[in-house]
Amino acid sequence: MAVSGSKDFEPNVADYIEEAFERCGLEFRTGYDSATARRSLNLLFSDWANRGLNRWTIKQVSQTVASGISEYPVGTITATVGDSGSLSVGETITGGTSAVTASIITKPTSTTITVTVPSGTFTSGETITGGTSGASTTISASPSLEDTQATIDILTGVIRRSDSDISIARITRDTYLNIPTKTTTGRPIQFYVDRQITPVVKIWPVPENSTDIFIYDRLVRIDDVDAAVNTTEIPFRFYPCLAAGLAYYISLKKAPERIQILKGLYEEEFTRAAEEDHDIASINLVPYYASL
Fold this sequence. Notes:
By secondary structure, this protein is α+β, with helices and mostly antiparallel strands.
């Protein structure tokens, strides 16, 4: 007998739901069964985020800093404008109708700018004015916060200057709060992640130029399950963990007599998956002989 020669097994959401219902001793029949299972699946992904089981969703971000700006969105917030040419990097823009403000971080193109988290919601088509340049243009709509809000956390970061990367240390809220002079400028050496609904990262000292690059690895959430025909954003080695977790979540609602056995199986599968999902590197231990 010959092997299949294929390595493309990838269950879709409906397949996982059927598997989970069967483990609960049930049959997947109605549209509500699908809806409640998809909801449970999205909640399961949130649980994985809390447990740190999203390492395949690590994204590296290269953020050029702006002189005088210490606070940056963890991700990218892009605004489309009529003409960005006369606006200056680092200045504050203000909406003429909404009075919303944001600071310009970069100008990727002649009609786009990346900005800090706005103070509110810009009005579509309103005039925005630069606080330093005095230049004005129109903004097409309030920029989306989706990319930034999809961030779970920042793992590590460096500051790149002249093709040389220097590690930048993460500090706590208390440590950042106790920095006596937060307006000190220089090459950033520390960062604090303020994990709000729209998370931001605060770096210190405040950048002294607009050419250094803050490079960091961020952990982002798994794509939502919106339809039964969707596939899931997970590697194949996590398929058993996903099936076990969904079965446990469904048992909480439909098969209480199986909760304990399905919970135990889920935790076992999760532990196995989590232990596998880590960096592998060599380590050398050298004995130390103290002088006598």
